[in-house]
Amino acid sequence: MAIGEIGLSLKDFYRLTYHEYHLVAKGYMMKDERHWMKIRMLSSLLINVQMPKDKHISPEMLFSLPSDNLIIKKKPIPTKDEFLQAVARYDPKGKDKV
């Protein structure tokens, strides 16, 4: 991937640490993801131009991307009691309160 798709030379690839390569690869994948998001948006706009207003589709309805799963899987917001229990659990002075 580094030499082919990303376009690094072999010399530059061998100079990178693993962490640096990981950041380069992550940046490349994010750029690719944004490219597919643009394609999906433009495709949905072209489809919606020819459809009645009540049958418009969202870009997510065309096809899914790996980032869609990350957006859907949001953690629930804790209740006030759960928050206070967590504060008491991690506060060395407040262990006797809960």
Keywords:
single chain; 98 residues; mainly alpha; 6 helices; 0% strand; flat
Characterise this structure.
The protein is mainly α and 98 residues long. The chain has a domain at 2-66. It contains 6 helices and no strands. It has helices spanning 2-6, 10-15, 18-49, 59-62, 66-72, 80-90. The longest helix is centred in the middle third of the chain and has 32 residues, at 18-49. The radius of gyration is 23 Å and the shape is flat. The mean pLDDT is 84.
The gist of it:
The protein has helices spanning 2-6, 10-15, 18-49, 59-62, 66-72, 80-90. It has a domain at 2-66. The protein contains 6 helices and no strands.
Distance between the termini: 52 Å
Number of strands: 0
Mean pLDDT: 84
Number of helices: 6
Radius of gyration: 23 Å
Question: What class, by secondary structure content?
Answer: mainly alpha
- Helix content estimate: 55-70%
Major sheet: none
| H/E element sequence | HHHHHH
Q: Approximately how much beta-strand content do the residues carry?
A: under 5%
Residue runs with pLDDT of under 50 for 5 or more positions: none
How would you summarize the topology of this molecule?
Elements: H1 2-6, H2 10-15, H3 18-49, H4 59-62, H5 66-72, H6 80-90
